[in-house]
Amino acid sequence: MTKIRVWALLLLIIGLSIGYFDYYSEKAPVDSAFNKPFKLGLDLRGGSQLTYRADVAKIKPDQVGEAMTSLRTVIERRVNSLGLSEASVQTEQTSIGLKENRLIIEIPGVMDVNEAVKQINKTPLLDFRTERPDGPEKVAIVKAQEELLARIKTAGTSSPDLLAGADPLAFEDANFVPSGLTGQYLSRAILELGAGVSLGPTIGIEFNSEGAQKFGEITKANVNKKVGIFLDGELISAPVVREEIKDGKAQISGQFTMDEAKSLVRDLNLGALPVPVQLISTQTVGATLGQEAFDKGVMATLYGFLLIAAFMIIWYRLPGLVSVVSLSIYLSIMIALFKLIPITLTAGGIAGLILSIGIAVDANVLIFERMKEELKRGKTVHNAIEDGFARAWTSIRDSNISTIISASILYWFGTAMIKGFALNLIFGVTISMFTAVVLSRTFLLSISPADISLNRFLFSGGFSSGKKSVDNEQLTVNYKNKS
Predict the structure, then answer these.
(1) Termini Cα distance of the chain
(2) Most buried among 32, 132, 372, 429, by the most CB within 10 A?
(3) Secondary structure (H, E, C), 317-350
(4) pTM value > 0.90
(5) Each residue's pLDDT tens digit, 6-57
(6) Is 367 exposed, middle or buried (0-12, 13-18, 19+ CB in 10 A)?
């Protein structure tokens, strides 16, 4: 019994610690590692949604999926480069009417997306840059960048006003200089296998006639130096030039895995042959409407929790109170997951959380009803708890697994809002099994009396008066004699 009580105390302390983390993460300073605010979705925070149609008519059917993945990767990189790091970029294929491949971009907190639309509509830019030589210019760029980073660290944010007032040199690349050779001169990129096993995969690139001439001039002037390959301003490879290349063909080698090499080939070809996109719709959700939806979702969760807690305590008495404690720890764990992963919280996600609370309580109801049956048979409270959990486990396991399967199907085929609902439901059901079967059981066993007659009313539940039958009284006497 002592061991069970120690475990119960330890689990309670851990639950309280998680709850305190949930609270402190909202109050912690911005530069603190414990600052973990909720990541709100478009429907709760407000913002803009852009829907694009991708033109895949010139792409082979078996390459459409890869092309859309490439497009999403580049668009994500482009949107993030604008400072919109919380944006969500997803692809989907419509199944009603004329099939279309679409790109959906959700940007929470941004009401004016004209600049974002302008940037997204641009063709993905692939360019080659040469090493910047050491000198006063490079020193000045490095100094400007260090000053900007210091200002951002002091201010605790990289606001547009702060960036606008920075030295223009801070936004230059200190290591590379544009060469004028871009993806428009690239003919294709292909995946090649190295001559030996140790070399691994390599990437072959070919330029058109004009690009071959430019590439020859660049390689001639930069022998034994690096030539950086950039996609949308981000360095993806920096091979060293060994000799002048006149035929417009080159090979990028390095310690690539097969997946990394495939990804690089994909990005290179995307820079040369991007998937055209066309903006077909925009939608704006006001910040006020989003905040109102968030507040109502929080209140619905709170009211639901309080009503369930009241019912459990009134109907099941002491086990009901224990279930409320377990349920509180369950909510603390869920909130911590939202903050740490982080999971984008949407209205559908809150609905999934509320539903999972009901499922978590359902497991406790099954257990407590089994406990009542065992108590009616004259068992001690301790044994009734053990047998009640054991006999209810099969039903809890099967019902929760079926819910997880259904939610997984919703996540696989659903839209963004449906996915938020399904993901939160999966997490909720999984954690609820832990809190119901492990926490509630441990807490109940730690407070269960050894004497069947002691506090029986607190464990009976329902309309039971707690009175024992003659057989039960005889069982109690036998139990005492054995003890």
Answers:
(1) 15
(2) 429
(3) CHHHHHHHHHHHHHHHHHHHHHHHCCCEECHHHH
(4) no
(5) 988 999 999 999 999 988 888 888 778 788 888 777 777 777 888 888 888 8
(6) buried
